[in-house]
Amino acid sequence: MLVLMVGESVISSHHDICENCVCRQLTIDCTNNSLKAVPPNIPPNTTILILKDNNIEEIPDYIFNQTSLVSLDISNNNISYLSRNSFYGLETLITLKLQHNRMDFTVSYPDDVFKPLVNLKNLDLSSNLVLSTINESYPNRALRHLKSLQELNIDGIPNLNLGEGFSNLTNLLHLNFSGNCQTSNIYNNTFVPVSHIHELILSQCHLRLIHNSSFGVFTQLRLLDISFNINLGIDRAFRALRSLNSPDLRVLDLSSVVDPFAVGIVISGVNMNQIKHLNITELYFNHNRLELIELEAIPQIPETLQVISVLDNRATYGWYLFGLENLINLVCVDSSQQYSSHDPESHHTPQSSRYVSSFSKSRDNDSTFCQKMNVSSVDLFNINQSNISSLPAGKPLEIENGLHTPALSSLSFNLKNFTISVPPNIKYVNVSKSIINFPIPNMRFGNNSVKLLDMSGNILNRWEGPIGGVTKLEWLSLSNNFCDYINETFFDSFPGLRELFVASNFLAAVFEADVKGNIFHKLQTLETLDISENKIRTLPPALLRGLVNLKKLDLSKNILKAWTLDIDHMKDLRYIDLSTNQLTSLPVQFRNYGDSQYDANKELTVDLSGQTLRCTCDTLPFLKWMKSNKTIFVRRDDYKCEDNKKKELTLSNLDAIILQLERQCASLSVMVTILTGSLFVIASVLIGSLIYRYRWKLRYFYYLTRNRYHKAFPLDDNENTQFEYHAFVSYADEDRLLVTQDMRQKLETEHGLNLCIHHRDFVPGEDIAANILSAVRNSKKTLVLLTKHFLNSYWCIYELNMAKVESISTGRNVIIVIVCERIPANELPEALVQLMRADSYIDYTDDPEGNVVFWANLRRSILAD
């Protein structure tokens, strides 16, 4: 019975607290719930309790009794004091966060308040100190019980006197005073009670003076951070390090130890001499207005250095740059954000780079470029443009105050014939957003191991190249450089490049002109290409012909209206970003590629967000393809499209859109079919009518062309050409005697005319139609012997029409009609009637007296022009 009651009590309490808080397995999260008190009856199996960002004013005695908490977060509340038994029962607690409350060191911590916390390793009391006096002291009697403590974050008081409470923290490794630090002076004996710690952070402490032997007490120190103490000054900062003899020191942060508006900061040989004995591997000297390093200082730089960070300074060109080649262990350099401006009104000081204890094996989110590279083990291909630089990929660079780096633009030697020496083992270099302003020339670097180079956010507006000595480069960013020209050979010397970012430039014209794909054709190892935000309207199909191993292509934020690229050779392409363009659909070539990737188990992902697609009959196949789910579309349900009436639709209703379009397009298809058939019939009738009307002219020109091609007959269009015959006689076979006897006798024998008579003069073996055309063309006149037999002869009518077309095409009076017998007009062809009405004709007669006149008139007509 007792067990059942306890069980019911646990279930009831768990139900009560989870009504207002988020409960996940053994974690209860009550963040920002406007709680005014710690919830009672916390389930005993809870291991993590989060009560931050509330209005809790006290922690009652025994409130956590009978719990198994491992982590307790009550930060950012209104707690002003603790009770003696506030943490009673928390023997298993490892992490306690009390930062951002209102607890005073003098009165808020009872002597035994931390006594139950026998296993506490991490304690955060920072950002509690609001107002302090010179006599402020730490709650030493309360802190003395924390013998297991390894990490302590606490505000720095004006008189940084660490009493007996700190002496009992024998396991303390990480000590951070940077929460609300008001310490201005550090004395020689300040850190004697904690001389065994590994990490000391004094960032943002308003330090003005550090006595020369203050750090000499440390024997195991691994990290020292005195950054963002702008009143300390560079000389005092370096002098304080002279006594530091910890052989284990690896990280030294001297960022922002001078005023942000200081002028002409130089690291001297004397400065570097103060730290040359240290075995540091990481040196941070950010935000210090540094302009030069004296040549005397270069040989004294610790050879153990692997990381140098000098971002947000004012570096100028000098020969000291070439002395850095002797740093044989240097792996990473961050020289980004040079010549950045600062707000004089707020005199703003950036937040410190906070270091998490070395036991956590990680760094804070504020970590710098080289920390993100993790130097020893970096996966280049999980690095995005945006997490290297605070300027995201594709965002335009805002140049502040238009300054120019007085450096490489004024070199006095020819880079083409000069090898630029660099540290041999350097792998990661960041010179982004430094207003470097010059074209990239033909240049060569000495032996190096550079894998990653970030030159984004500068003004490298022409990329001439080629560049030698970059054979190991795998990651390159040239985004945000105002570039409008790339030499076709610029990328020829990057055999191992795997990720290339050239976003936010002005490369549209360059890419549009590269119809042969020469710019990128040698980048056969490239896996990621970002050419977003380049104002690209169209791309030639062969632009990416050499990128056989590409996996990710970013074309976002351009003004593409159609997909034109050929990507069939890219067998590993997995992601294409086409967002924020002006595309209305994707062509069948693209769709077929997506299907082929799906069939090869290499599913393609496409982003088409940020543009209005078309939902019409023309794009229905595309919409059906999207529905097939063979290609993944990022946030497809958020896509928008327009129908024919400009009505905006969302693709969250894609099935309904397709169904409606299928209905509309089906009726439209029937209408189109009917219209198409009708147009075809009308066109056929019109064409047939035209062919029939101009059939003789078509035949004329056909045989004219045929005769010219075969050269069967001499045809000449010259008006001055002498005709072979005076007349071609067109007659029916039944009327042959009139031609062979009378006409030959009267015209050829008596008058010397040359007649073309088809029984006699046609070329054997040649088409009759071709012979007729040749006879008409090579005769001055065509004599038509009009009889009923003539009208009944197909070839006679053919000869008449050919002669008529010849007359029209040449403008000559070709036809002479000889009426051999009277035929009613209604029996004559219309063409012959029109001809006889327009021109006179000759009546044949066999009367002896009239016959003489007939032959004389006929001879005269034949010879007339």
Automatic annotation (TrEMBL):
Entry GO terms, CC: plasma membrane
Q: Where is this region: Disordered?
A: 339-360
Give the classification, highest ranks. Answer: Eukaryota, Metazoa, Spiralia, Lophotrochozoa, Mollusca
Recite the UniProt keywords alphabetically: Glycoprotein, Immunity, Innate immunity, Leucine-rich repeat, Membrane, Receptor, Repeat, Signal, Transmembrane, Transmembrane helix
Native source organism of the sequence? Patella caerulea (Rayed Mediterranean limpet)
Instruction: Please state the protein's primary subcellular location.
Output: membrane
Is this entry keyworded Transferase?
A: no
Q: Please name one Pfam family that this protein belongs to.
A: LRR_8
Q: Where is the TIR domain?
A: 723-862
Please state which protein family the record places this protein in: Belongs to the Toll-like receptor family.
Q: Under what name is this protein listed?
A: TIR domain-containing protein
- Membrane-traversing stretches: 668-692
| GO molecular function list | transmembrane signaling receptor activity
The UniProt entry lists membrane topology as: Single-pass type I membrane protein
Which SUPFAM superfamilies would you find in this protein's record? L domain-like, Toll/Interleukin receptor TIR domain
**Gene Ontology BP terms:** innate immune response; toll-like receptor signaling pathway
* Subcellular location as annotated: Membrane
* Gene3D superfamilies per UniProt: Ribonuclease Inhibitor, Toll/interleukin-1 receptor homology (TIR) domain
